[in-house]
Write a structure and sequence with these properties.
Mean pLDDT: 86
Radius of gyration: 24 Å
Structural class: alpha+beta
Strand order of the largest sheet: 3-2-1-4-5-8-7-6
Distance between the termini: 66 Å
Order of helices and strands: EHEEHEHEEHEEHHHHH
Number of domains: 2
Strand content: 15-25%
Low-confidence stretches: none
């Protein structure tokens, strides 16, 4: 199982970074931060970051997702949100014999509004910009998909109707309940990004040049995969599901273990076994359907916003150094 999604990151405001990573939105010169976008492909079971691609914030998710297709293998299933529900992208997945479970795009017109599961044949639309006419003519004229409708009911929220598109057409082998359960696991990638951006501090990078930013991204990816590999080893050796292991607890245990293990070489094997046992014992509570809103407890400082470049800002006469 594979899951794909995108996220953003920012970096220091330097001239070199601005040339490669422009400001996001309508930020004034000297008052914002260069912003980039990253689309990553993760393993649903282990949480491993398989591959990723970066560009400026102006690039679309599909543009960054197409180079990641080479990391997919035949027989795998790809999970994604509605941003990846494109006819051309789904056809490219089927050409690689990769199945998909992706939420239906809001602009797609439905043929049925009452059925819970049905099949549709999506005809080829207009040629995508940047794709040659020869390559477009080689694509099939129709894509057969299956649509599954279900309702998500969470305590304290209104019921929400969701429609997903899948290439798993066999309703006997893949019932609607299995498709629903599989798509709901797509939220794991949001937790992976939170672990990378918050626990590993990828949200705001520190490099002053694009070359350093690229190296910093790769170092975060390598560190994340090493921690995930350690969690997978602890889960397998102690019979604990990897999804129940704490990522932050693994980092804390690894930092505490490193000083003890590096002191004497003869204690490293024993310390490693103790480390795996410590990681396996730190289980995340099983809380299905739990809502975790993004909110801050600590209030920010009462400073004015920087709405002009810093060298143009004036300090009050009472605070100016004499």
């Amino acid at each position: 199982m594979r899951v794909i999604d995108g996220t953003g990151f920012s970096m220091p405001d330097t001239s070199a970074n601005r040339r490669h990573w422009p400001y996001a939105g309508r930020q004034k010169p000297g008052c914002g931060f260069p912003t980039g976008k990253l689309v990553g492909l993760f393993c649903l079971h282990s949480g491993r970051l398989i591959s990723f691609f970066t560009d400026s914030w102006k690039a679309g998710d599909l543009t960054l997702a197409r180079p990641l297709l080479k990391a997919l293998r035949a027989g795998q299933v790809l999970l994604g949100d509605r941003a990846y529900c494109s006819w051309h992208f789904l056809v490219l997945l089927r050409r690689r014999k990769v199945d998909f479970v992706i939420r239906l795009h809001q602009a797609r017109v439905l043929n049925s509004r009452s059925l819970s599961s049905w099949w549709e044949g999506w005809a080829k639309g207009q040629r995508r910009p940047g794709l040659s006419k020869t390559s477009w003519e080689k694509l099939p004229s129709e894509l057969l998909v299956r649509l599954v409708r279900f309702r998500i009911q969470a305590r304290g929220f209104r019921p929400k109707s969701v429609i997903v598109v899948t290439s798993l057409l066999d309703q006997t082998a893949f019932p609607d309940s299995a498709i629903q359960e599989l798509y709901l696991r797509r939220w794991q990638i949001e937790l992976h990004y939170r672990q990378i951006k918050i626990s590993l501090c990828l949200d705001v990078l520190r490099g002053l040049t694009p070359a350093v930013i690229e190296r910093e991204l790769w170092m975060h990816a390598i560190a994340y995969n090493l921690i995930r590999a350690l969690m997978l080893e602890a889960g397998i050796s102690h019979g604990v599901p990897v999804e129940r292991l704490s990522f932050k607890g693994t980092i804390d245990a690894l930092q505490a273990w490193a000083d003890h293990a590096l002191s004497r070489s003869r204690f490293r094997r024993q310390a490693r076994l103790l480390l795996l046992a410590r990681i396996a014992s730190d289980l995340v509570p099983f809380r299905p359907g739990r809502s975790e809103p993004r909110a801050k407890k600590r209030r920010p400082k009462c400073f004015n916003l920087l709405n002009r470049p810093r060298h143009l800002m004036r300090v009050a006469a009472s605070r100016r150094l004499r």
